[in-house]
Structure formats: C-alpha cells, structure tokens
Amino acid sequence: MADRQPSVFEPQTDLESFHTHLKKSKRVLALLGAGLSASSGLPTFRGAGGLWRSVKSTDLATPQAFARNPGLSWQFYNYRRHMSLSVEPNPAHYALAKLARKMPGFVTLSQNVDGLSQRADHPSDRLHLLHGTLFDLKCSDERCDYREENYTDPVVPALAIPADQAQPAGSVVDISDSMVALPSLTTYDLPHCPECKRNLLRPGVVWFGEALPEVVLNKAKDYLAAPENIDLIMVIGTSAQVWPAAGYIGQARARGARVCVVNMDSDAPPGGWKQGDWMFAGDAAVLVPELLK
Ligand code: BV8
C-alpha cells in the first residue's frame, strides 16, 4: 500500500485473536486486489513486477486509449485474458469461496478482473466485481446494450499470441513488447458487436474515468447501510490506491468493522491503523487459508 501517515496504533499479528473474532462475526466484508492472484501466476499492477509499470499499459486502461488505438488495447486485454485462462485459482480463492458458502453475511468486493474467484466457485450472489471482468465483452457504443460472456482465447484469430511471445504463467513480462510484436491490426480484425453491427466490442472492465457498475455500487451500498454493524473487513492483496474501491475500507470501519490486512508489505490502510486491527504480512495464498480455517 502507498505510504500512509504514521499510525498511533500498531496492528495485532496473532492468529488466535483473529480466529476468536472471526468465529463471533456475522457480517464480514472482503476487499480483494491483484495480490490475491499473484501466487496463481498473474502479475500485480503496481508492485515491482507490476503490469502498470510500463507507462503504456497504465495508459491502456482508459476509454481514450481504446478510441485512439483499439488494436493495441485489444492486444493488451487479449493477452491478459490469455494469462488469466492459463493459470488456476489458488488456495486463497477457494478458502474465500468456502467461507462465503458457510457464512451468509460474508460478502466479497473484488477489484480483480481475472475471473479466478469465479473459477473457485465463489457464490456469485455475494461476489461483487467492482471493476468488471476480462471475460465480459460489451458493445463499445453505450447506446447499444449488447454484452456477452466470452472465454474464447484468442478473442479473435488475428490476436493469437505468437508462440515466442506467450510467456509462461508467473513470468514478469513487459507486455507492451508483445503488443508491438504483433502485426498491425485493422479494425476489421477486431471483435464487432453482433447486435448493432456497426461498433467494436470492448472488454467489460471498468476503465479509469468510468463509473463502477451501478448494480455493484448499490449492492455494496445496501450491505453497508444495513442496520446490523459490520464485524470485519479483510483487505487482501491490494495497494488500496484505486478509488472508490479503496473507500470501502473506511466505510466498513464507520459501520464498526475491524480491519485485517493481508499483504506482502505491511503498510497501513488508508487512514492508518486503528485499535483492534490485524496485519498479516506474506503471501495471501498461504495466509488466507490459515486465517479462514
Ligand atoms: C471512477 C480494470 C468516477 C481495468 C481498474 C476518488 C474517488 C473516485 C475516483 C478517483 C478518486 N481519486 C482518483 C480517482 C480516479 C481513479 C483512481 O482511483 N485513480 C487512482 C490510480 C488514483 N478511479 C477511477 O477512475 C474509477 N472510476 O471513480 O469514476 C465517475 C463517476 C461517475 C461517472 C463517471 C466517472 C475507476 C477505477 C477502476 C480502474 N480499473 N482495472 C484493467 O484492469 O485493465 S483498476 C486496477 O487497479 C485493477 O482493477 C486492480 O484491481 C486495481 C487495484 O490495484 P490492486 O488490485 O490493488 O493491485 P496493485 O498491484 O496496485 O497492488 C497489489 C497489492 O498486492 C500490493 O499492495 C502488493 O504489495 C500486494 N501483493 C503482491 N503480491 C502479493 C500481495 N499481497 C498478498 N500476497 C501476495 N502474493
């Protein structure tokens, strides 16, 4: 997480106090980030091996980038679809799905677009995708409401990743290189909307500058507004730098939640540590199953 102001409190780090609290908890939120999928072999966004480290890929997660160069944008997203399909959910994805089946008051807010929580059979009614998913396609014209679930890899033949470009899962790769390597694409090569037939299809993710899905915002709002307090929010594998997603930590606190951070680094969440927080530093794939045992 980004450097935060020094905290007055230091977080607890013992499993026992966490397990005691979790056992008594009825309403628990999880806020998930790319660190949850790191051990599955997917690069995070802002860490050392991060996907956004090359300016090009940061620029690509915007509507302007798609309008400017849909071919490059589709190469970026097709590559991430390919990477996500070539890895497996890890024990943390399965542990969270198991808790969701066991605890009716457990809700997951995921920033991840990689589809791994879904493939771990996380109950879909309590898995809210704040930033959409790589495996939804929708018409790039907002006036057309076409959307489809799509796992085709490559998404169109012209985007097939040359064998020498396909990196083994988990490798840190500057994917902008692979995007340059593919022949220049024309819009005829790219997926088109079968409904309005005029426009390109785009990835069903939330780009920077775009509003989060209304239905997801409302589900989160209703959960936070319910009369009963929230007992805990688990903040797993996120730098908490993207808003409004990061704001759910403070909103949960305001409803009584204690915060449990699971992260490779031990930075405090936005607003610093508060009394009763926990910090478990390490790999989410190892720690989360322990915590949810
Ligand atoms: C919007 C999809 C308004 C695309 C993504 C305040 C309020 C509202 C908005 C803003 C605001 N301030 C600024 C904004 C604008 C912007 C924003 O937040 N900018 C940031 C960069 C400052 N927000 C927006 O634009 C949002 N839209 O607010 O719209 C609006 C309202 C009405 C009408 C119109 C507009 C939209 C944001 C969504 C952007 N889309 N993704 C794509 O993926 O291509 S964001 C992207 O970042 C991913 O979704 C990702 O999930 C997300 C967050 O990153 P993290 O998951 O945290 O990943 P990161 O690499 O950063 O961190 C990984 C962490 O894991 C690290 O801490 C690391 O230490 C740890 N880790 C690593 N390995 C492990 C580990 N932990 C455990 N185990 C390990 N093994």
Q: Could you characterize what this model shows?
A:
- Keywords: Metal-binding, NAD, Transferase, Zinc.
- InterPro entries: DHS-like_NAD/FAD-binding_dom, NAD-dep_sirtuin_deacylases, Sirtuin, Sirtuin_cat_small_dom_sf, Sirtuin_class_III, Ssirtuin_cat_dom.
- With 293 residues, the protein is of the alpha/beta class.
- The protein is built from eleven helices and nine strands.
- It has helices at residues 15-24, 35-38, 55-60, 63-68, 70-85, 91-102, 116-119, 175-181, 214-225, 247-254, 284-291, and strands at residues 28-32, 106-110, 127-129, 132-139, 147-149, 201-205, 232-236, 258-263, 278-281.
- The longest helix has 16 residues, at 70-85.
- The model has no long low-confidence stretch (mean pLDDT 91).
- It binds ligand BV8.
- The site of ligand BV8 has 36 residues, from α2 and β8.
